[in-house]
Design a protein that fits this description.
Structural class: alpha+beta
Number of strands: 13
Largest sheet: 6 strands, antiparallel, barrel
Number of helices: 4
Order of helices and strands: HEEEEEEEEEHEEEEHH
Shape: globular
Strand order of the largest sheet: 8-9-10-13-12-11
Radius of gyration: 21 Å
Helix content: 10-25%
Length: 306
């Protein structure tokens, strides 16, 4: 009797878990211009968001839950004015036909207190959608890092977007989503590069992370702002390390891309979106199973003691 009861309780717990709205982040289901980049495959970056203002592409973003998008604060000079923005999720081409996309208005925009401009840091924005997205192969969330997540120097990551392919040269044709691989650059090296020209010195602050090449040639550009810098972790999960923030020109020598470092904003994100789960290692899903099992076992013990 006890064995049958345990099996029944475990079945209910597991099926209840499967029937929930929980979604594994950072795992694209489909595997089949950024300066120096190439066309991305459709569905390769299912968290990429096209942010338009008055029907014109202005920035990128990344889908982090069914109701929230992550972007850059400088994309929204007046965060209280949400009516002009439309977010396209599941989009692949700016001009082409996108059968998987959905359009969403914005309910509110949250930026850190004290934000002034990208060079002073705090260049992060959270956008609450007016309607929830539905998950499919072309619409998936990216994982966000817990405070202790490391993105070491030299780690290969990708930046994606619909921005200019050269400085002041917009993406042409159907406007296919672009991707480019860039390595993480240490804060010290990045600071040294940005000090080479006394007339263009920039301080690389603690909440910034750099990626790119000292010789230039590959980089984010205008129109890529707010988009994701994502890195594949040891277990194959894609985690967003940064948000496209600023640079001096595009793909210039000693001018790598500067991104908002997301590990510096874990509390800001959690306080705004309490339900979000941050990526802290390869065992998070295992922990979830242990919690479910422990809950089921507790129910079983209570029932058998009656």
């Amino acid at each position: 009797m006890a064995t049958k009861l345990l099996v029944s309780v475990m079945f209910l717990c597991v099926t209840g878990l499967r029937g929930s709205n929980a979604q594994i982040c950072g795992r694209p289901q489909l595997k089949d211009r950024i300066v120096g980049g190439v066309d991305a495959l459709n569905g390769a970056w299912p968290w990429q968001v096209d942010i338009q203002k008055d029907n014109v592409h202005v920035c990128g973003g990344s889908l982090i839950t069914q109701d929230w998008v992550l972007s850059a604060a400088h994309c929204f000079p007046n965060p209280s004015d949400v009516s002009a923005y439309t977010l396209y999720i599941g989009r692949y081409q700016l001009v082409g036909i996108n059968p998987q996309e959905s359009a969403h208005s914005v309910r509110r925009i949250v930026i850190p207190s004290g934000y002034q401009n990208p060079n002073n840091g705090k260049d992060i924005a959270l956008l609450q959608l007016s309607s929830s997205v539905s998950w499919n192969n072309f619409v998936q969330p990216v994982c966000l890092p817990a405070p202790g997540t490391l993105f070491p120097t030299g780690m290969s990551c990708y930046v994606t977007g619909w921005g200019n392919t050269k400085e002041d040269v917009p993406l042409t044709g159907t406007g296919t989503l672009q991707e480019v691989k860039v390595p993480i650059i240490s804060q010290t090296s990045c600071q040294e590069m940005y000090q080479t020209n006394p007339q263009e010195q920039v301080d690389i602050l603690f909440d910034m992370i750099c990626a790119g090449y000292q010789e230039g040639g590959k980089d984010a550009c205008q129109g890529d702002s707010g988009g994701p810098l994502v890195c594949s972790m040891v277990n194959g999960t894609w985690v967003q390390a940064g948000v496209v923030s600023f640079g001096l020109g595009c793909a210039k020598q000693n001018r790598p891309g500067v991104y908002t470092r997301l590990t510096s904003y874990s509390e800001f994100i959690r306080s705004t979106i309490p339900e979000i789960q941050l990526y802290g290692g390869a065992h998070r899903s295992v922990c979830g199973c242990v919690v479910v099992y422990a809950s089921c076992l507790s129910i079983f013990l209570m029932l058998t003691r009656r």
